[in-house]
Design brief:
heterodimer, A: 350 residues, alpha+beta, 6-stranded antiparallel beta sheet, two-stranded antiparallel sheet, 15 helices, elongated, B: 352 residues, mainly alpha
């Protein structure tokens, strides 16, 4: 029996293939392709050599020219399959190319130069992952420094955000005090105000404090998130007051009530906020771009943007570094994906 | 009695009883031990403070750190921004800045014809404004529709729903810079898309040299990157509609379209509103992704308001902080108006 509920609610086609089923699986497979292919393409391209990257149409897999060291030649020479006049195919190394003619040698007999028409040769290519795309920029550029800065900013900012937001959320949820309503309303009303609206004055404050070109200038300003305070306050409202009261009767200080009773009970909300904070901070771009001007303080995102601006042609490095930048957050997602998606769906925040 | 430690309440995720837990559990225990030690040390200070001011006033101590950072880095700058927009010169510190009244605003609004950016003194600002409006309308419209369609599809109990949900959500986690670079690589002259075009016997297109193509891709890419987030919220909204409603309506003889119209649409309306508001607020701020992708070009085809603010204040030959602040005041007022309108709409739909 197929009824209306099948369409909008949760029932499967029960063995019968409806047009909606076909549409749905078509849509989902197409969607999966659209979502994954760009990232997959990035990862596959990042293992290609510069020569492999400029081929058009591009190869699917990272092929590179096979080379061979020949006695008497300092650099490795590229290998070609050459069709000779007698109909045989010989594998030769190319010494140089002059116009339409290529000068080749047989690696076994390096003394004799063979001249062939370039139409007669085809490249010998092998599948090889160009790991040097990854190792070279790590050695030659500041990437490890950027990585360290990003980790420092993300970890410190998340810890501070969790601590002060949960303290404020606790006070707003569990105490009656003068100004509580006012504080709550002020914090909530700024939920909708993006940092891009107050760039200049925040920059002034940072300069006034002397946090220009200081990671603190990136970490601290965004720590008092209205979203976090709101989320944690709402969650803490559901914790029964009796639990707090009985702890106080046992002689616990307010601070102990906070960290030993309320915090563990608010762990799910804290976890959601932690994930968001990590995501915000790891991906943050505009603010670090303004505060940090010395390259040894760049975070990964700023470093990567600067890197692609400088090395516009060196795509092989840019692609590899992009993969490195998206790797940590991808790993986190791979392990916590179910938790993250349900966490967002239930709290509806970003 | 008063120094008796109370029984610790341990979160379920940190089992502390098993002597030989997994490595992850051991790590969790270690983390908790460090956390507890720090908190215990802090307790000496806070307990002493509490004896001094009494337990009720401890609430102020708890809100203080957050409020301090919030006040210094959000509230104070908001007011300062207003002051900045009324001053001129290139100095950063307000004391060195001459008061110019509404001059910055006059400069921004110095237009012969507001519909034609060429006739404006700050033509880049007005181009940014119109580009942003176009972007917001198109991007939010397209993205919310696709997110809704995806949510409806996933709301049927398809096999592997969790997997597909994660697939569609994954790009949300990527940074704007990474997203821009991924697509810059795909859309470049010798890229994947052009290879497909040539394979189909068409001409190669250098996408970012054509204004229309640049706008098309900027919108498509941000839809690709953000859709999953709104899809999740809409999916949660769809799942919160009780199944009994559909059963009852089908028993009453309603057809598929009638139940969608009379049950799904009205009950999903609040979620749609939230999603639209969040998407608009995000879209108005469009900057980083596009900046890395196109640099605002070709020409000014993808230059948006935030890029104007950033360049006017931080990336130009002279730092025109006053003008940038005036522009951000305009942006802030626009956002405020939008939020108010949305509140009114929300109230009206509540009343109905």
């Amino acid at each position: 029996m197929f009824s209306v509920t099948d369409f909008v609610t949760q029932t499967r086609g029960r063995g019968r293939l409806e047009w909606t089923d076909i549409f749905i699986y078509l849509y989902l497979s197409l969607g999966t392709l659209v979502m994954f292919v760009p990232v997959l393409w990035l990862v596959m391209s990042s293992f290609k050599t510069p020569a492999g990257l400029v081929r058009f149409p591009p190869d699917l897999l990272p092929f590179s020219l096979q080379t061979v060291s020949v006695e008497g030649y300092p650099d490795p020479l590229p290998l070609y399959d050459v069709a000779r006049e007698d109909g045989t195919v010989q594998r030769l190394a190319q010494v140089r190319r002059v116009g339409l003619e290529a000068q080749m040698v047989d690696p076994a007999q390096p003394a004799e130069i063979i001249r062939v028409n370039i139409d007669q040769r085809t490249e010998v290519r092998e599948l090889r992952l160009a790991w040097e795309n990854y190792t070279e920029p790590l050695r030659r550029f500041n990437f490890l420094v950027y990585l360290r800065n990003s980790v420092v900013v993300t970890v410190a900012a998340t810890a501070i955000t969790l601590l002060i937001n949960s303290m404020a959320g606790f006070a707003l949820a569990k105490y009656e005090f003068r100004g509580r309503q006012a504080i709550f309303v002020i914090i909530i009303s700024t939920l909708m105000i993006p940092i891009s609206v107050i760039l200049v004055p925040v920059y002034l404050v940072i300069t006034g404090i002397g946090w220009n070109n200081n990671l603190l200038g990136v970490i601290i300003p965004g720590a008092a998130t209205p979203t976090g305070v709101f989320l944690l306050r709402q969650y803490m409202l559901t914790i029964p007051d009796e639990l707090l009261a009985s702890a106080r009767i046992d002689g616990a200080s307010e601070w102990r009530v906070y960290w030993q009773i309320v915090l563990p009970l608010a762990a799910p909300a804290m976890a959601v906020l932690a994930i968001f904070s990590v995501m915000w901070r790891w991906n943050d771009f505009l603010w670090p771009l303004i505060v940090l001007t010395r390259s040894e303080l760049f975070t990964l995102q700023v470093g990567l943007a600067a890197f692609q601006g400088e090395l516009n042609v060196q795509w092989h490095y840019v692609l590899a570094m992009t993969v490195l930048t998206l790797l940590p957050i991808t790993l986190v997602f791979a392990f916590l994906q179910r938790f993250i998606t349900t966490g967002i769906a239930t709290t509806g925040m970003k | 009695m008063s120094d008796q430690p109370i029984v610790p309440v341990v979160p379920k995720s940190l089992p502390r009883t098993s002597a030989r837990g997994t490595r992850a559990e051991q790590f969790g225990e270690l983390l908790y031990a460090v956390f507890a030690a720090v908190m215990n040390v802090l307790d000496y200070g806070f307990a002493a403070l509490q004896r001094g001011i009494g337990p009720r006033r401890m609430a102020y101590v708890f809100v203080l750190p957050n409020l301090l950072i919030f006040g210094i880095f959000v509230l104070f700058p908001m007011f300062l921004n207003l002051y900045y927009s009324l001053t001129g010169g290139t100095a950063l510190f307000p004391a060195d800045r001459p008061f110019v009244g509404g001059q910055n605003f006059a400069q921004l609004f110095d237009c012969d014809n507001f519909l034609n950016p060429n006739s404006c003194r700050e033509d880049r600002f007005w181009r940014g404004v119109y580009n942003t409006i176009t972007y917001v309308v198109l991007q939010v419209g397209v993205m919310v529709l696709i997110a809704l369609l995806t949510a409806v599809v996933l709301n049927r109990s398809v096999r592997g729903r969790g997997f597909f949900r994660s697939v569609f959500f994954y790009p949300v986690l990527l940074s704007p810079v990474v997203i821009a670079l991924i697509w810059k690589w795909i859309l470049q002259r010798d890229g994947l898309i052009n290879a497909a075009l040539v394979g189909l016997g068409m001409e190669r297109i250098v996408f970012f040299l054509h204004a229309d193509w640049a706008v098309f891709w900027v919108i498509s890419i941000s839809t690709w990157a953000q859709m999953g987030f709104y899809m999740l919220i809409l999916l949660a909204g769809l799942q919160s509609i009780p199944a009994e409603l559909y059963e009852a309506s089908s028993m009453d003889g309603a057809n598929r379209w009638q139940s969608i119209r009379n049950i799904t649409m009205p009950l999903l309306m609040p979620t749609m509103l939230v999603v639209t508001v969040l998407a608009v607020i995000r879209a108005v701020q469009v900057f980083d992704q596009v900046w890395v992708l196109t640099g605002g070009g070709p020409g000014t085809a993808t230059t948006y308001v935030v890029q104007y603010i950033y360049e006017t204040a931080f990336a130009g030959q002279i730092a025109r902080f006053g003008l940038a602040s005036a522009a951000s005041v305009v942006l802030g007022v626009a956002l405020l108006l939008f939020t108010l309108v949305q509140l009114r709409v929300g109230q009206r739909s509540d009343m109905e």
